[in-house]
């Protein structure tokens, strides 16, 4: 009798515990991304501008940013939007129009990424600029812009777009159906860094390397536009033997002098950088970014785009941290006049 | 003697309860978040003081501030909730001495009125530099404010400048503690370099 009582009480207690515990556990694990996942997705998003503006590989460089069954939807195309699915149709999208190896137009920024079941979702701003063709006198202007609403999937080749939809920026009436609201920022729960998939077996960069190189490039405009110390901060972003091109400038003293000759001031903002792509190399890393130099109107004067193009960089990891070893500015050029 | 089996049963139940409540806590403490953050705080690298995830969280915070400001989500409170409860926004370009918005209600008003909506993109932020500090982090970002798709206006650069930020790590994640906006202004403009 006593043993039956023991077993009954124990069984009852364990049943209550089991019920309580199962109620506390989520039905599915909360999706998480590693630091490298965030950075690799960002790299995918930034590559998009280059692939679309250059039309590289007959448009297939663009198509290969998508998973095989992925879709791009231009909600601004026609009365109800237009979708493109599959590699050939996506490649066709990146052909025609104004494309050229040094053409820049799609400036992507404000990239927000959130983990989601099966991968990740994200959203970015895109400013689509009509940059005057290689200094031929054509005036640059803001053509249009809006947002991309993305779903990302992790494939054996790395992160890819599963779907991407473009919404034209609009205010007033009529407005397009808005995408779902973004979540409130929260403390991130990270997956182990080893879960990130960097395809290939070549040289790799750590998440810290990506962040440091991003920060190096982000500092560049401040050192040039605000120039608080006669160009020394600017020059110290480079290795001692670094070379800047356009105009070719070598050595830190010459770099400091060049920076000091540029317009500057404590509140001055002129060099806006976007689409920062970074790749590991055997010697360090290389990278590129879009530049748009904007002359912000003062005292009620209108603003204007001074120039646009892209930088091509080599980075070296020194005892002081990552530095520019070479930096080359290439002005935007289409090879054909705007129609 | 009759109470002993009952005591044993209750003891088994209590031990089981303790085991089931302690194990998840240990998994959380020793989980990948902690390992990742500790692993990235290498004194030899230039990001010391902040983990890579701290940088990513702060980047996401600043980018979301543009989305919240342009969308005006939740009657402006999506923007206000990116700040700490005592957060401050100073718009140095408003009026002769600038204008300060302090606390959730005042901050929400910044993201109301004017051209707002889920498909309004106006604040394009770039060049985000983050620096660790003893209390948390500071940062700076360029912002160019563009009229795109605004009814009755030509697509154009409207104005621009930079943000100076102070970030604080709260129980909910990183938040803006202070943000100061300064309009772009050139002081030295050698004619030969224009």
Description:
The complex is a heterodimer of chains A (339) and B (194). With 339 residues, chain A is an alpha+beta fold. Chain A has helices at residues 2-24, 35-54, 60-63, 87-93, 207-225, 232-235, 252-260, and strands at residues 66-74, 82-85, 106-116, 119-130, 141-155, 158-168, 238-245, 249-250, 271-280, 285-295, 304-318, 321-331. Chain A is 25% helix and 35% strand. In chain A, strands 2-1-6-5-4-3 form a six-stranded mixed beta sheet, covered by helices on one side. In chain A, strand 9 (271-280) and strand 10 form a beta hairpin. Chain B has helices spanning 4-29, 32-40, 52-71, 77-80, 103-110; strands at residues 83-91, 99-102, 123-132, 137-147, 156-170, 173-183. With 194 residues, chain B is of the alpha+beta class. Classes of the chains: A alpha+beta (339), B alpha+beta (194). The interface between A and B is large, with 92 and 93 residues.
Helix-strand category of chain A: alpha+beta
Strand order of the largest sheet of chain A: 2-1-6-5-4-3
Characterize the main sheet of chain B.
6 strands, mixed
Oligomer, anyone?
heterodimer
Low-confidence stretches of chain B: 13-47
**Strand runs of chain B, count:** 6
Question: Mean of residue pLDDT of chain A?
Answer: 87
**In total, how many beta strands of chain A?**
12
Largest interface, C-beta within 8 A: A-B, 92 and 93 residues
Strand content of chain A: 35-45%
Distance between the termini of chain A: 96 Å
Provide the structure class of chain B: alpha+beta
Q: Please provide the ordered H/E string of secondary-structure elements of chain B.
A: HHHHEEHEEEE
Average pLDDT, all residues of chain B: 80
Largest sheet of chain A: 6 strands, mixed
Cα radius of gyration of chain B in angstroms: 24 Å
Give the low-pLDDT segments of chain A.
14-26
What is the tally of helical segments of chain B?
5
Overall body shape of chain B? globular
Number of helices of chain A: 7
């Amino acid at each position: 009798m006593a043993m039956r009582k023991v077993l009954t009480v124990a069984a009852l207690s364990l049943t209550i515990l089991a019920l309580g515990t199962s109620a506390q556990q989520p039905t599915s694990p909360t999706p998480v991304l590693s630091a490298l996942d965030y950075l690799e997705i960002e790299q995918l998003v930034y590559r998009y501008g280059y692939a679309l503006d250059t039309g590289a590989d007959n448009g297939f460089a663009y198509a290969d940013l998508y998973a095989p069954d992925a879709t791009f939807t231009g909600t601004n195309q026609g009365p109800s939007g237009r979708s493109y699915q599959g590699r050939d149709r996506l490649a066709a999208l990146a052909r025609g129009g104004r494309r050229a190896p040094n053409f820049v137009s799609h400036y992507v920024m404000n990239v927000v990424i959130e983990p989601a079941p099966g991968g990740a979702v994200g959203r970015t701003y895109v400013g689509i600029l009509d940059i005057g063709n290689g200094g031929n006198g054509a005036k640059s202007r803001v053509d249009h812009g809006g947002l991309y609403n993305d779903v990302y999937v992790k494939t054996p080749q790395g992160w890819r777009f599963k779907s991407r939809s473009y919404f034209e920026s609009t205010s007033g009436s009529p407005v397009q159906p808005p995408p779902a609201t973004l979540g409130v920022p929260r403390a991130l729960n990270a997956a182990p860094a080893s879960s990130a998939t960097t395809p290939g077996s070549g040289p790799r960069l750590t998440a810290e390397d990506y962040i440091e190189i991003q920060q190096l490039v982000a500092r560049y405009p401040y050192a040039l536009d605000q120039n608080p110390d006669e160009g020394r901060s600017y020059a110290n972003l480079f290795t001692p033997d670094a070379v800047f091109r356009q105009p070719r400038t070598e050595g830190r003293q010459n770099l400091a002098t060049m920076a000091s000759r540029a317009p500057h001031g404590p509140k001055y903002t002129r060099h806006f950088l976007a689409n920062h792509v970074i790749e590991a190399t055997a010697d360090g890393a290389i990278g590129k970014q879009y530049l748009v130099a904007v002359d912000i109107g003062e005292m009620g004067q209108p603003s204007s785009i001074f120039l646009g193009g892209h930088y091509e960089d080599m980075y070296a990891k020194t005892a002081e941290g990552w530095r520019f070893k070479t930096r080359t500015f290439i002005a935007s050029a289409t090879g054909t006049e705007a129609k | 003697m009759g109470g002993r089996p009952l005591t044993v049963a209750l003891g088994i139940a209590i031990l089981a309860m303790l085991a089931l409540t302690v194990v998840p806590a240990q998994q959380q403490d020793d989980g990948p978040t902690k390992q990742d953050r500790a692993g990235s705080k290498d004194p030899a690298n230039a990001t010391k003081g902040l983990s890579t995830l701290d940088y990513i969280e702060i980047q996401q915070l600043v980018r979301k501030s543009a989305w919240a400001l342009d969308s005006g989500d939740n009657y402006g409170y999506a923007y206000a909730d990116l700040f700490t409860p005592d957060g401050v926004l100073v718009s140095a370009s408003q009026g002769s001495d600038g204008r300060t918005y302090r606390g959730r209600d005042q901050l929400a008003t910044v993201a109301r009125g004017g051209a707002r909506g889920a498909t309004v993109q106006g604040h394009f932020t770039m060049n985000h530099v983050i620096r660790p500090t003893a209390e948390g982090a500071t940062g700076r970002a360029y912002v160019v404010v563009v009229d795109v798709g605004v009814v009755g206006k030509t697509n154009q650069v409207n104005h621009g400048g930079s943000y100076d930020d102070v970030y604080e790590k709260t129980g909910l994640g990183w938040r803006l503690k202070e943000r100061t906006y300064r309009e772009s202004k050139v002081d030295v403009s050698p004619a030969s370099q224009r």
